[in-house]
């Protein structure tokens, strides 16, 4: 017996819905990126666990990390040794609070010497490559 398969009338709709879902997924990745700024004046002169945990930006970063495989942290600093050391100090503190060092990237790409730009988000997002 030979069966005839009817042309699927909903095939164009299927592809359109698939395209929309891929577009929505890419948009969600971009929206999933949190941009924060850590100002030098907000960082304690005498660093201790309680002082670092009192910082709003640090608390925001810690609350953003739920699944290490689905998150990356990029710390951008100004291109001088003082800013680079400060960025590494922040990275060390985040690691001491339980965030794996493998998901924290430190990069020379900041705009201001007294600020760190911190990006927290999905590793599949485009921001990770810049």
Total domain units:
1
Rg over CA atoms, rounded to whole Å, is: 21 Å
Fourth-level CATH superfamily: OmpA-like domain
Mean pLDDT: 80
CATH topology: 60s Ribosomal Protein L30, Chain: A
Which sequence of SSEs, written as H and E, runs from N to C? HEHHEHEE
Main sheet, how many strands, which sense, barrel?
Answer: 4 strands, mixed
Question: Strand order across the biggest sheet?
Answer: 1-4-2-3
Q: In percent terms, what proportion of residues is strand?
A: 15-25%
Low-confidence stretches: 13-30
Explained architecture:
It is a single chain. The chain has one domain: 2-Layer Sandwich (60s Ribosomal Protein L30, Chain: A), CATH 3.30.1330. The protein is built from 4 helices and 4 strands. The chain has helices spanning about 10-30, 50-55, 55-65, 80-95, and strands at about 35-40, 70-75, 105-110, 115-120. The longest helix is centred in the N-terminal third of the chain and has 21 residues, at about 10-30.
Quick recap:
The chain has four helices and four strands, in the order H-E-H-H-E-H-E-E. With 130 residues, it is an alpha+beta fold.
Provide the descriptors you would attach to this structure in a database record.
130 residues; alpha+beta; 60s Ribosomal Protein L30, Chain: A; 4-stranded mixed sheet; 4 helices; 4 strands; 39% helix
């Amino acid at each position: 017996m030979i069966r005839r398969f009817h042309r699927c009338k909903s095939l164009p709709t299927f592809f359109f819905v698939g395209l929309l879902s891929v577009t929505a997924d890419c948009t969600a990745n971009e929206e999933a990126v949190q941009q924060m700024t850590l100002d030098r004046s907000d960082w304690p002169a005498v660093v201790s666990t309680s002082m670092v945990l009192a910082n709003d930006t640090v608390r925001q970063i810690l609350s953003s990390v739920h699944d290490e495989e689905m998150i990356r942290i990029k710390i951008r600093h100004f291109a001088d040794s003082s800013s680079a050391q400060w960025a590494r100090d922040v990275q060390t503190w985040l690691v001491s609070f339980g965030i794996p060092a493998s998901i924290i990237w430190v990069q020379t790409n900041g705009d201001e010497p007294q600020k760190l730009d911190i990006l927290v988000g999905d590793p599949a997002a485009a921001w990770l490559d810049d």
